[in-house]
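Ticket #4471: structure output looks truncated?

Reporter: J.K.
Steps to reproduce: submitted the chain below (309 residues) through the standard prediction queue, then opened the result file.
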Amino acid sequence: MLLEIEDGVFSDQVADVMTVLKLLEFTMERRHDWLPEPSTAETARRYLEAKAPGLASWSEYLFTAATASAWTSTDRLSENASPPVTVTAANVADLVGDLGLPAVIIVENARNDGSLLKAVFGAYDRQLLEALEKHWLRIDHSGGGGDQPWLADEAAKRFQHVCRVMVLKDNDKRLPQQATTPAELASRAAKEPLIHIWWRHEVENYLPDAVLELSPHEHADQLLRHLRSLPTEQQGWIDMKYGLAKSPKSISDAFSPEGRRIWDSGYRKQLPKPLVPDDLTLTLDDFRALGEEVHDELLHLLDKIKRVL
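Returned output as attached by the reporter:
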């Protein structure tokens, strides 16, 4: 998260010096970002000289952070950038608690959905993959029994000031989705989880060819060939596991007779487990081959994840 730390934090208004040191530690290890104005950096430097004179490394770090602020000010004002979290003397203790917890993404199946998210992180933004590895970000399992809202509320209760929880939901009703606007994101209540409904039916509809080619299904080659013969929109709505029996009739009509026969029951349970094996590396081009709308959604999804990270 991008932080905006007020000068008052670096004063006797905050009784616990360790709270301030912990906050700065988050920024030094790049867990959270801080781009101070030179005057604020100087206030922080003087504070640390008085309160923690043995920590000489702070001076160089604060100079570097203030320099970075001058170069990245345009990014901070970008329309799609997440607004900074303001840290004050009054809320710093609560915020240090919140910022020290891992951000949470709640999915229906942590093993399968999580494997896809890891592959997307690796292809699009390795900093998110690093956040997972460092336990700054967590993927939680909710199952398909309707417990997601309860789990999201329970996760949100752990945060005192800023909710760092996101829920990823299958598009069970196959309703068209669109990007959440910056204004809509900004209007979200501070303690409310962020929701993302997949623009396609479910995570299996985002599997690139390199994954589907690993299926042990006896007709795997034909399933993939006929799937890719469909328009990209219908590829997004087909039920990958159960085939035409649980898919809209328009998809059946779009297939050739052979395609309808092959896709009658889909892949069933013969997809890789986890969906994206750990030893398979996917690229941005693998996902982009699914359609530009998939690429656009994944970029939007990653921006939303960064808002809670």
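Triage note (M.O.): checked the attachment and the full token line is present. The chain has a mean pLDDT of 91.
Status: closed, working as intended.
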